[in-house]
Structure to design on (459 residues):
């Protein structure tokens, strides 16, 4: 039974920590992609394209087995966490960028036309509205991230899916075990969706 | 929203560019030094990747990846169509479950649960069936959005001209819906191609699994997986570009 708890807690911890890091890195990359400096824009675009177009499992394998070979050793949990966070950061960056862009093209230009400065229109007009618009896409990314943490089980982190597989070997109650774990994921996703809707209502 | 850049702004952009170039190059140098000091840049470790047998093996993996992705794509589109045609409580629940349950869990069900009930599919299907089940839900969403994106006025205009309902659907609504859906479907193909890397788990000999076998054989772990990642990158970048082109073409003709 302790294995169930360990798996569940690991999945929750992986989700929360890597989403927090993904938000920070994603914000940074989104800013890089918006600033009017071509070099930084290019760097942001390269980051997004490279991370988005390679499977997460390949990144996990590369990080978990490859990093020790180049002399970077971290605990397994943190290595997996870093890989997942950097991968999802690319999606976060895209969500943030398209959120800001969708507002900036109409509302932002109107604010500029009314005589607000660039900074004023960004701070008072674009960002408050963009914030509201990115909540739903970010919640979707958080749900995708919850699912993605299952892949950490493949490289050795004892997460919920991995725990289920091991318990199944002992108990031989496959239907019960896997349905239970599936329900756990459903509950987590429902929680994220509920939180996102509450947040959206607060911002509205 | 930006002002047209003046001379002072242009100077500032220049300096920011210079500083960030130094920082980026510094990071790159740091990474390379870390690789070099652990002997990972040794030409001996990279030379195998200039030889044909190694590439033949990896490209064989890529071929299996593409085959699995195509099979999954066909099944997922068929399933998506079925789901999209009948929006009811069951299909909505199905989509919701598939959006939240990891594909890996479905793969494990295929690997560990079904055999105990006497269903033991070949490896290929153990990978393809769970992927198709999960991507069918995404395809259904795309199909529904595609049909929904066509202005209802188009259908009404067709009916007003006296066309039968089937003809309107076939010649007025669907062509426009398909043009709207194609970029989304190509983007979905990228995500599908990435998901076939789960072959690593079921031991289906696709690209990532072949990478693991190769790394076990020649001991060049870092190099092998970097090359594998590059292959994924090239293929998926090409697909992403295609999606971008299609989207741009659609936006042009929509006006």
């Amino acid at each position: 039974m302790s294995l169930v708890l360990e798996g569940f807690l690991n999945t929750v911890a992986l989700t929360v920590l890597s989403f927090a890091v993904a938000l920070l890195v994603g914000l940074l990359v989104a800013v890089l992609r918006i600033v009017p400096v071509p070099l930084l824009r290019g760097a942001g675009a390269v980051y997004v394209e490279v991370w988005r177009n390679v499977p997460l499992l390949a990144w996990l394998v590369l990080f978990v087995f490859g990093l020790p070979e180049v002399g970077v050793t971290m605990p397994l949990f943190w290595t997996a966490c870093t890989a997942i966070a950097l991968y999802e950061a690319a999606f976060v960056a895209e969500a943030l960028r398209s959120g800001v862009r969708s507002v900036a093209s109409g509302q932002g230009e109107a604010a500029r036309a009314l005589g607000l400065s660039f900074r004023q229109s960004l701070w008072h007009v674009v960002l408050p509205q963009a914030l509201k618009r990115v909540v739903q896409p970010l919640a979707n990314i958080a749900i995708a991230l919850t699912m993605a943490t299952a892949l950490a089980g493949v490289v050795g982190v004892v997460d919920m899916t991995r725990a289920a597989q091991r318990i199944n070997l002992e108990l031989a109650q496959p239907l019960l075990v896997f349905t239970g774990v599936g329900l756990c994921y459903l509950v987590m996703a429902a929680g994220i969706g509920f939180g996102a809707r509450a947040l959206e209502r607060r911002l509205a | 929203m930006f002002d047209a850049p003046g001379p002072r702004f242009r100077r500032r952009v220049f300096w920011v560019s210079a500083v960030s170039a130094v920082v980026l190059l510094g990071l790159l140098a740091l990474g390379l030094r870390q690789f070099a000091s652990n002997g990972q840049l040794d030409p001996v470790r990279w030379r195998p990747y200039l030889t044909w047998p190694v590439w033949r093996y990896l490209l064989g993996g890529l071929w299996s990846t593409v085959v699995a992705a195509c099979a999954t794509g066909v099944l997922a589109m068929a399933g998506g169509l079925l789901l999209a045609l009948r929006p009811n409580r069951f299909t909505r629940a199905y989509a919701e479950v598939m959006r939240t349950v990891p594909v890996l869990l479905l793969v494990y069900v295929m690997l560990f649960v079904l055999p105990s009930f006497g269903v033991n599919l070949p490896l290929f299907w153990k990978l393809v069936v769970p992927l198709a089940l999960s991507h069918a839900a995404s395809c259904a969403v795309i199909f529904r959005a595609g049909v929904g994106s066509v202005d209802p006025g188009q259908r009404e205009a067709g009916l007003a001209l006296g066309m039968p309902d089937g003809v309107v659907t076939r010649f007025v609504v669907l062509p426009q819906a398909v043009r709207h859906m194609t970029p989304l479907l190509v983007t979905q193909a990228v995500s599908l191609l990435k998901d076939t890397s789960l072959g690593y788990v079921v031991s289906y000999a696709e690209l990532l699994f072949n990478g693991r076998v190769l790394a076990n054989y020649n001991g060049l772990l870092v190099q092998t997986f970097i090359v594998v990642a590059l292959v994924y990158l090239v293929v998926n970048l090409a697909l992403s570009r295609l999606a971008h082109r299609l989207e741009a073409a659609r936006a042009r003709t929509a006006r």
About this structure: Chain A touches chain B through 58 residues (CB under 8 Å). The two ends of chain A are 43 Å apart (CA to CA). Chain A has one domain: 2-203.
